[in-house]
Amino acid sequence: MTKKQQDTQSNHSQETSQNDIQQAIALFYDGKQAPKVSAKGEADLAEEIIAIAREHGVPLYENPELVRSLAQLDLGDEIPELLYRVIAEIIAFAYHIQGKTPEGFQPPPHTENNAP
Question: Which neighbouring-strand residues pair with 107?
Fold first, then answer.
């Protein structure tokens, strides 16, 4: 994984239910296009994907339902529009816990609530 890939790799999801077969999905997000499936696998391959994510400091997010939806996609596919909001929230949280902000992000001005 190159430094650029590490910086833009945003999310891994895993699941251990569904017949006790672990699954992992990795998404690549460049900030310009919809996130794409960059890796996916079950069992040993899932464990390897998760290990690589941990090795590179990529936050992990566990959500069995999301994994089932993403597992239907092929490598390189963009996530469907239906999942934009949930994936955006996960990416935003991943950025936050890593102390990152998206390029060009301007936080809203802080205002005091003067209501009585």
Answer: none
Total-model pTM: 0.72
> Is 37 a domain residue?
yes
Q: How far apart are CA 90 and CA 29, in angstroms?
A: 12
Provide the domain limits for residue 65. 3-97
Average pLDDT (69-80) is: 96
CATH number at residue 87: 3.40.1690.10
Between the alpha carbon of residue 70 and those of residues 55, 82, 110, the distances in Å are: 23, 11, 37
Q: Please provide the size of the chain in residues.
A: 116
- Match 């998206």 to its residue by tokens: 102
